[in-house]
Design goal:
Blueprint (H helix, E strand, L loop, with lengths): L3 H24 L1 H5 L8 E4 L6 H17 L5 E3 L6 H8 L7 E6 L1 H7 L10 E10 L2 E5 L7 H10 L5 E4 L5 H11 L6 E4 L4 H7 L5 E4 L1 H9 L3 E6 L25 E8 L4 H15 L2 H10 L2 E6 H21 L7
Parallel strand pairs: 1-2, 1-3, 6-7, 6-8
Antiparallel strand pairs: 3-10, 4-10, 4-11, 5-8, 5-9
């Protein structure tokens, strides 16, 4: 017969084997299920295919895919000045597989009442680039400077038509700021991104505030005249175009673009995404794309980027309220 002590020893040995096997299985889980990322990481873009936002996002996505080792497909989810895309990503699982190509629009959409949540619904990953709006007119008009256009608009209050990317968009806010500075009343005409340039060329509007990349080829061909950019300094894509500030208007309106994820995404996942973005933005390919598309590479890590968004949100909220564009309670 087997003694009680022998049975006890055998039981303890078996328990140890089971526990050891269990620990080995747990430690092997990452390998079995794959470390992040082990499947495509989707990047939601808030504006249409071919827009400057879309083009920049695709360059970023290509670079991230090389560094993450998985595909990073870009999906355009447009509408509501970015609200539709933000809402989609906000409602996704916070696991790092759904990113949003965010911008100042997260604040403009919220403060104008287009969406019921703000930037706090997301975790910041990294700032990627900066873009500066530009104001253009047809080259066959008599307006050679921004002052020329403003003077004409003052003589015809409420008649000059200005093309913007959509009501509540960043270009709408920048236009309001620019014209409000000199007390000029104009009519804003909303278009999907890219259409404003076509309408301007066709003479159906008098001017347009858009991203420089959509004006550049037409200006080079002599069909459009770019009167100003809204940053404090001139931009590399348009070195001969003066700033609004140089022409007596004290404004500094610049859009940042970056990447965010749903709130609650694990910090180690954010760190991997952040690293892939940092390496992509630092690459020669990304810098070269910036020269062609019209953006400036401007990497900023997650923590600093989050602080910038919070600060920017306060400024945008105050500005929207001053311009009478705030949501009504």
């Amino acid at each position: 017969m087997i003694g009680v002590q022998t049975l006890a020893k055998a039981f303890r040995a078996l328990s140890a084997m089971i526990l050891g096997a269990g620990l080995m299985s747990i430690s092997a889980l990452p390998a079995a299920f794959g470390a992040f990322p082990d499947s495509p990481v989707e990047l939601t873009v808030l504006f249409g295919n071919g827009s400057s936002a879309d083009l920049t996002a695709r360059v970023l996505a290509d670079g991230m895919a090389k560094r993450l080792g998985v595909a990073v497909p870009v999906v355009n989810r447009t509408g509501g000045g970015g609200a539709l895309g933000y809402t989609y990503v906000k409602n996704q699982k916070p696991d790092g597989y759904s990113l949003v190509w965010n911008s100042n629009s997260v604040s403009t959409a919220f403060h104008q009442g287009t969406m019921p949540f703000d930037y706090k619904s997301f975790d910041s990953v990294a700032r990627v680039s900066l873009e500066v709006p530009a104001f253009a007119v047809r080259s066959d008009t008599p307006w050679k400077t921004l002052k020329d256009f403003m003077d004409a608009a003052k003589k015809n209050p409420g008649k000059m038509k200005i093309g913007i990317s959509g009501k509540g968009s960043f270009t709408h806010l920048a236009s309001e700021l620019m014209f409000a500075k000199v007390g000029v009343t104009v009519v804003y005409v909303s278009y999907v991104e890219g259409r404003a340039t076509t309408e301007l060329l066709g003479g159906r509007i008098d001017g347009a505030l858009q991203w420089p990349s959509v004006f550049k080829s037409h200006a080079d061909a002599g069909d459009l005249r770019i009167l100003a950019v809204t940053s404090q300094d001139r931009i590399p894509l348009l070195p001969d175009t003066p700033t609004a500030k140089e022409q007596g208007m004290d404004i500094d309106v610049v859009m940042w673009r970056g990447v965010a994820v749903p709130k609650g995404t694990p910090s180690d996942v954010i760190a991997k995404l952040e690293k892939a973005i940092q390496e992509t933005v630092a690459s020669p390919e990304f810098s070269e794309a910036g020269k062609n598309i019209g953006f400036a590479p401007a990497y900023m890590p997650a923590k600093e980027f989050g602080a910038l968004i919070a600060e920017d949100d306060l400024r945008i909220g105050k500005l929207i309220n001053e311009l009478g564009m705030a949501k009504k309670n």
